[in-house]
Amino acid sequence: MHMPEPDSDVIERRDEICATLRTIIPAECVIDSVESMRAFDSDGLSAYRQLPLAVVLPETVAQIADVMKWCHQNGIKVVPRGAGTSLSGGALPLADAVLLGLGKFNKILDIDFDNRCVVAQPGVTNLAITNAVEDQGFYYAPDPSSQIACSVGGNVAENSGGVHCLKYGLTTNNLLGIEMVTIEGEILRLGGKHLDAGDYDLMGIMTGSEGLLGIVSEVTLRILQKPATRRALLVGFEDTESAGKAVGDVIGAGIIPAGMEMMDGLAINAAEDFANAGYPRSAAALIIVELDGPEVEVDTLIDRVEVIMKNAGASSIKVSQSEEERTLFWAGRKSAFPAVGRISPDYMCMDGTIPRRRLPDMMIRMASLSQKYGLRVANVFHAGDGNLHPLILFDANEPGELERAEDFGGDILRACVEMGGVLTGEHGVGIEKRDLMGIQFTEDDMKQQQRLKCAFDADHLLNPGKVFPHLHRCAELGRLHVHKGKMPHADIPRF
């Protein structure tokens, strides 16, 4: 993995840049000592680390705008950072870029039960939204496993999902409005409490844009009433292929569960050791199916799903009999990632998506790749929507193991595309999948995406080095011949 060569002129001006930043925002909001910046040298993809040029932690939207405007005018790159939980390296700093952290934007600004929405600053954690409204019987549907730590601004940047996105959608399906700051320092509002906004879907463009187009400074999120009844099934299988087929059988029967997750034997036992959730340790695969709605509907669907699972070859079926038991079923799944961290010095969490019907094929492919690279893999899937999260176990202290893990992960993602899927479901491209973009998109596809980037950030100052393996200059994408860095007839206004 290679990042863009840092601009030596910018690095030489570091002291001057930091001094100027302290005149733009309060001095205590600028961090430039090596020791203090260590806390920001990586994100959730911790195999890669890089100290930023400086860290700024603004306290108001106006301060964000002032920093962005000054950086734009002076050609300084900016890397946005939320909670730093990105698993694709989306918040990895650059040596010649200012890291703009949003950790101080941690307040819920408005709870509007009449319009069923919450207005919050981008640094508010995902789980905090539900905690703020649950006493009135409401909740926020997207629930990534990192919801206790990940921020809602970062959820917008990556279009995060979670275990309940099968029925209730990803962030984009639960986002009503945003306030954003452009690289020029302009503050824009897109959407709001109303159901739909007119004109171009700029909010849709911003959702999942990975910090390349602007910085989210406020979000308006849809909240939902809690279902009358929620119950879950814990289903064990003796082989992963049967479990994969069972997932497709449930959806094929016209049943859309609130969530349907799958784990293999290695993940099952790691999670059970960690959470004591009552998982069947002898199972080769485990499916958790949650159904919600009116009690009579849920009871009927539970019976139907039990029949489908038995016909698919389930070796064990357990149905939650209380809210506490349902929560315990999910506790193991929610803690699967940290649980795997107890059985391996390091792991790399992948993120790809395939058609549900190819789950059995992918399980076979995964086992074969594990043998090829000599590395274990613990599989944790959002099986209902085909979103895979294989955890590749390795030891970075062993020479060559990190490189083998990277190659293993690359082959998993290539297999996803080969099977009719895509490179990412919710973690984003970042740096992790950047150099694989060419296996899913043609050169023309990527040029078109970069034209959109140019419309928002013509100088490529926002989060450079991410998503695009080869970044074209905007003038080139506009089909203008550039000679020695200069456009012909530069005096003519261009639109």
Structural description of this entry:
It is a single chain. Helices cover 34% and strands 19% of the residues. The chain has 495 residues and is α+β, with helices and mostly antiparallel strands. Among the domains are: 8-101, Uridine Diphospho-n-acetylenolpyruvylglucosamine Reductase, domain 2 (2-Layer Sandwich); 108-225, Uridine Diphospho-n-acetylenolpyruvylglucosamine Reductase, domain 3; 229-338, Alpha-Beta Plaits (2-Layer Sandwich). Strands 12, 13, 14, 15, 16, 17, 18 and 19 form an eight-stranded antiparallel sheet that branches. Strands 5-6-10-8-9 form a five-stranded antiparallel sheet. It has a four-stranded mixed sheet with strand order 1-2-4-3, covered by helices on one side. The two termini are 36 Å apart. Its EC number is 1.1.2.4. It comes from Puniceispirillum marinum (strain IMCC1322).
Explain briefly what this protein structure is:
The protein is an alpha+beta fold. It has helices at residues 8-12, 14-24, 34-37, 61-73, 126-133, 152-158, 165-168, 202-206, 240-252, 265-275, 295-311, 323-334, 336-340, 359-373, 401-418, 437-440, 443-456, 474-477; strands at residues 30-31, 54-56, 77-81, 97-101, 108-112, 117-120, 138-139, 175-181, 187-191, 215-222, 224-225, 229-237, 259-264, 285-293, 316-319, 346-349, 352-353, 377-382, 387-394.
